[in-house]
Write a structure and sequence with these properties.
Helix content is about 30%, strand content about 20%. With about 230 residues, the chain is an alpha+beta fold. The chain has two domains: about 10-50, Leucyl/phenylalanyl-tRNA-protein transferase, N-terminal domain (Alpha-Beta Plaits, 2-Layer Sandwich), CATH 3.30.70.3550; about 55-225, 3-Layer(aba) Sandwich (Aminopeptidase), CATH 3.40.630. Residues about 225-230 have low confidence and may be disordered.
Amino acid sequence: MPPKFFPPPSESTPDGLLAVGGDLGPEHLLDAYRHGIFPWPVDEGEPMLWWSPDPRAILPLDGLHISRRLQRRLRSDKFQVTCDQAFADVLAGCATGPGREGGTWLMDEMIAAYTVMHRLGHAHSVEVWHEGQLAGGIYGIAIGGLFSAESMFYRVRDASKVALAHLVAHLDARGYHLLDVQQWTPHTGRLGAIELPRAEYLKRLAAAVELPVEFGEKGDWLWDQSSNIKRI
């Protein structure tokens, strides 16, 4: 089915811009993510911009690049990893953290919108802790077998990569088929991200969002995942 609130992604500009304006309510956001569209503002106070770039970047769930050093870090006791325990703090870290990595500039209205999505069970966070303090994390939107990673940050070296590794292991174990990272960058490329033509991405997306997959409640998180994280 075509988007309810947006033009077809094929109508986007060469740089991926599809629509200007519109609200960030849950119905609009779910319609957007279901059809390969995401919000990305340019400046505070300006109308919201909606994007569907071609090509589109994904991180294959069997393609995460884990270095030997990071593998040692994952097997150590330096970090503790949780899920959905500090969503607001992860958002704040992604918006202002010195180690913010990729993703959207989070204005107040976006933080409010994703907070509502979290309350409704559509947005999730992975938190990494060091000595009782939040050291890094990642958050995104889950619909069926799609997880759209929005942004991640770190305050302690490797914390965001640890969060991503645990997220990938969790998604794979839960039966997810698609981890969207929106745009390829040298950083996401080093982690294993690849680009797909938008048409191919949308084909995979349409199948993924219909899967009977759930992220799980806090108690369903794979708390001890070290043995599930393989070096690639």
